[in-house]
Amino acid sequence: MPHRHLRQGDTVYREGQGCDGNIFIVIEGTVTELAGTGAKLSSVKEFTAGAFFGDIEVLSGSAERLRTMKVTSTSLVLAIMDQHNSRVLGGLYPEFFLHLLRSAIDNLNLAEKALLEGRK
Length: 120
What we know:
Order of helices and strands: EEEEEEHEEHH
Mean pLDDT: 83
Strand content: 25-35%
Structural class: alpha+beta
Largest sheet: 4 strands, antiparallel
Strand order of the largest sheet: 1-8-3-6
């Protein structure tokens, strides 16, 4: 899988940006999921080594990204997995696909919690 190297403060993608069909795996560093807009951005969750993100949009077929992802560590290394590779890996290694689905479920639960808290 190709890798992407980013620095602290870089944005992996922004809420509303078109979804390119990529799922990201944190190899090294920390990236934070942000919700809201402008000055009202707030941290929702941190992702560290081994974590997946971008999976919700890809697995649901979303046309755009649902959150903003920003690098919070000094540097970040991501593995980039496109839809084709996720299907191939899931077919070859069912335990990998289960890990991806667990990640998606955890991320959906967190997103639902954030939405419910935002309505209060």
